[in-house]
Amino acid sequence: MDIPIKVKYEEDLDPHFLSEIKSLSMAENIEGCIQCGTCSSSCPMAVYMDYPPRKIIAMVKNGLKEEALRSFTIWLCPSCYACQVRCPAQIKITDVMYALKRKAIESKVYPSRFAIPVLDREMSRLIAKHGRNSELWLILRLYLKSRHFTDMMKMAPLGIKLMKTGRMSLRMESIKNKKQLKTLLSALQEEA
Amino acid sequence: MSGYTYFPGCSLKGNSKSYEESILPVFREIGLPLEELDDWNCCGATAYFSVDDTMAAAICGRNLSLAEKTGKDIVAPCAGCFLTLKKSNAFLTSRQPKSEKILKALKTAGCEYQGTVKVKHPLEILVKEVGRDAIKAKIRRPLAGLKVACYYGCQLVRPYTDFDDPDYPTTLDGLMEVAGATAVDYAAKTRCCGGSLTGTIEDVGLRLNYILLKEAKRKGADCVVTICPLCQFNLEITQDKMVKRFGDDVRLPVLYFSQLLGLALGLERADLGFARSIVSLKPLWEKLGNGGPR
Q1: Alpha carbons B58 and B88: distance in angstroms, whole number
Q2: What is the pLDDT of residue A119?
Q3: Most-buried pick from A63, A148, B79, B217 (CB within 10 A)?
Q4: Given A92, A119, A165, which is nearest B199 (Cβ)?
């Protein structure tokens, strides 16, 4: 069997990663993690993850930036906070996952047509522009930017059922005072 | 001043219209009218916080500022809106450099926020403020014989646990018992439905929701009762696919707690959004006897 030799040296670690994620997540006590694994055993998603939450926290603590940002764990986290409320060290683990998502998006280290970040991005764009989310338009954008057209056609029967029961409409929702929203978001952009 | 400012969010105006259609009459019946927040914007849910937390907190700040002008606290029936607004509220009033910056931008945009609004969930108001006895006195048609699996999901009870337990909450069970139903011991009551995963990595979403329905069936529940639009949506729309995928008929009606409470309060079935169910409600009506309350 051809198994590549993988050795990791101290130079490969990012000494600033911990402080960066601490500041982004406002989880000041990441270093308090004792690697007990309560987070991993509480996580309903752990079985589907490439690294369970406990390992992600260890990676953050030790500067394994690439591994943490490229993991699928951060995207599979649906923010159910089961780990966070049970953590004996009271680390805001869900907020750490959020910080890693933002860092990964900023550094563009996720598969470009991967549906989860695409959904996050498209929903944020819709809201920033119109002040409201429109479920149908969000789903259309998600499918166009993450999948094939044929996948969308498979969704048609469900779409019809939702339309028939009045649960989905073609309308593009919007707030009245879009100007205020624009002023707010650009005031923050100028600050940054 | 009685009553609350109602924050619907995108779901209650979209796929979970039946939640709005039942929560408004229930609160009217209880004597706490809900008035919709004028020109509310979306909360941003988990999506905006995954992209830009500053902007995400700022758009929530706009809603909080609009609500502050009404002089009433916010009631948010969607668990996602509830948590997002509550979390942003805590952050915006935390007096950190980052939050002060957002407050300044809000002021620039003409939505100054002083931090006086509280964000509440309708379940919290019903059990903590109205109280079981007051609700019991208004029950006209008890849901006798109906076995329900009370599903709380995640974001109502976590990470803020002001009114119930984060792992094994019981307030909804208690409320359903007041309405005359029997709450089964539902071990999966706070296990996550996966949120938007049903739309992004469908096979994971299906597995998570299958576990939830399977457990409800195993405990002999006639329906699942939810408090969150995304939970309701996921548990309902995945059922046909689940039957195919796992060869196991776990089909069950999935309803909002306000729909069942409305029935028990004597409201008309036709006025509580039941017609929007995709799954057949026939077993439910049979169980309630004589086609159930009309």
Answers
A1: 8
A2: 95
A3: B79
A4: A119
Residue B159: is the preceding peptide bond cis (ω within 30°)?
A: yes
* pLDDT level of residue B3 (50, 70, 90 thresholds): confident
Percent of chain B with pLDDT over 90: 96
Contact between B62 and A181 using a beta-carbon 8 Å cutoff: yes
Largest separation between any pair of C-alpha atoms in chain B: 62
Q: What is the pLDDT of residue B31?
A: 96
Number of independent structural domains in chain A: 2
CB pairs under 8 A between A and B: 176
The CATH-assigned architecture of domain B140-287 is 3-Layer(aba) Sandwich (3.40)
Residues A77-133 pLDDT 10s: 999 999 999 999 999 999 999 999 999 999 999 888 999 999 999 999 999 999 999
pLDDT at B25 over 60: yes
Of the candidate CATH numbers 3.30.2310.20, 1.10.10.10, 1.10.3720.10, 1.20.1050.140, the domain formed by B4-120 belongs to 1.20.1050.140
- Domain containing A81 equals 10-106
Residue closest to B196 by CA, chosen among B155, B245, B165: B155
Which of A75, A84, A85 to mutate against chain B (most B CBs within 10 Å)?
A85
Whether residue A165 sits in one domain with residue A96:
no
Of B152, B225, B234, B240, which Cα lies nearest the Cα of B198?
Answer: B234
